[in-house]
Amino acid sequence: MTVLEVYLSGEIHTDWRDKIQSGAVDLKLSVKFHSPVTDHDNSDDCGVAILGHEKSPFWKDHKGAKLNAIRTRTLIERSDLVIVRFGDQYRQWNAAFDAGYAAALGKAMIVLHDPKLTHPLKEVDAAALAVTETPEQVVKILTYVLSGKL
User: Fold this and answer.
1) Distance from chain centroid for Cα 57
2) What is the spatial distance between Cα 77 and Cα 106, in angstroms, rounded to a whole number?
3) Which residue from 35, 52, 79, 142 could staple onto 8, CB 3.0 to 4.6 Å apart?
4) pLDDT band per the 50, 70, 90 thresholds, residue 103
5) How many CB atoms lie within 10 A of CB 98?
6) What is residue 92's predicted lDDT score, i.e. its pLDDT?
7) Is the pLDDT of residue 34 over 80?
8) Residue ranges per structural domain of the chain
9) d(CA 62, CA 103)
10) What fold, for 4-38+81-147?
């Protein structure tokens, strides 16, 4: 049985990842999920926690961003499919970078966002093979990709 490796990128303030993962488990889909560190404090502080304190917020963020990029790039490269969620409340710079990186690598990509974000995300949507509005639609796509069943 083929295991589909999926990277779940994007906003960390809602339960969209849980819905996709539990939907895949409920349907016994052969999927292995990867994601960024979703604990905001750990993600922000990893650089200084591992490499040492910085006086400047710029250098603190710089260290953290680079360590997070090691994780993100490695897991996107390992994945067969990248799902990128853009939420309503926050600027999703990380998600936009991940979408661009996945597209540059030729990875299959699904974008997940509210319809009101269609215009601002039109370039990202154009790079995706599917644009969805709900985690349930993503699970249906995963089912179809793995089994060919609707």
Assistant:
1) 25
2) 10
3) 35
4) very high
5) 25
6) 79
7) yes
8) 4-38+81-147
9) 24
10) Rossmann fold (3.40.50)
